[in-house]
Design goal:
This protein is of the alpha/beta class. The chain contains seven helices and ten strands. It folds into two domains: 137 residues, Nucleotidyltransferase, domain 5 (2-Layer Sandwich); 80 residues, Nucleotidyltransferase, domain 5 (2-Layer Sandwich). The protein starts with a strand and ends with a helix.
Length: 232
């Protein structure tokens, strides 16, 4: 199966073409997209990638979408592109939480806490579990939520994960004050999204075009402002 993965959740993004079947996964090529250019560069970058490897859009067998949390504007661009392509080509979509992708980088079984800086002294936290008996190393999600830094620290004390993984050095320093196993990694790439998405696509863990939505975890400023004005 030819898989197209798109990640526009962060300050920069990427597209990955990959091949997968029941026993293998191979990245064909990835291309970066600079932040602030997603809407202008995503489709041309995809077209160039397909042409370079002599594929047509119709050859794509499924899509892997980074669903957030992340940039409101960036996520809308990436998910809208996947919606349009998947509807036209009638191909399946697998969504991948960015927190799930982050947790997948932890090389350990047991409970994994994936943490991302959410700004405003808040933290996106995902709690996952990897069981040794799972041959495909799939993660089981317990929950994802937006927390204040204080509640984040309290949750770590309660949940006692085997490891905390983050791509933010300041957040790692905060977590290290009460937890001895904290790992700092680079943010997960579209290749990681493609790998997790491939497993889900092959397992039939897909969503419809109509059901595809962003995993924001936080309301946008516009929604908060509108709600506040409506109460007034």
């Amino acid at each position: 199966m030819l898989i197209l993965a798109i990640d526009t959740s962060g300050q920069s993004g990427g597209i990955t073409l990959a091949e997968a079947d029941g026993g293998s996964f191979r990245v064909i090529e990835s291309a970066a997209i600079a932040g602030g250019t997603f809407s202008a560069q995503l489709i041309p970058t995809l077209a160039a990638l397909l042409k370079k490897h002599e594929y047509r859009a119709a050859d794509i067998g499924g899509f892997a979408a980074a669903s957030g949390p992340g940039s409101f504007t960036g996520l809308r661009v990436g998910l809208s592109a996947i919606k349009g392509l998947a509807e036209t080509l009638r191909k399946p979509i697998a969504t991948v939480s960015v927190l799930e992708a982050l947790a997948s980088l932890a090389d350990r079984d047991g409970k994994i806490a994936a943490a991302m800086d959410a700004g405003r002294k808040e933290v996106f936290l995902g709690l996952y579990e990897r069981r040794a008996e799972n041959s495909d190393h799939a993660l089981l999600m317990q929950h994802e939520e937006l927390l204040t830094q204080q509640d984040f620290m309290a949750t770590l004390e309660t949940e006692r994960p085997a490891v905390i993984i983050t791509s933010d050095a300041a957040l790692a320093e905060l977590a290290s004050s009460s937890h001895s196993s904290v790992v700092v990694v680079t943010p997960p790439s579209s290749e990681i999204i493609a790998g997790i998405g491939a497993r889900k696509l092959l397992a039939g863990e897909t969503v419809s075009v109509e059901a595809l939505d962003a995993n924001y975890l936080r309301r946008s400023d516009a929604e908060i402002f509108f709600k506040g004005n409506r109460r007034a």
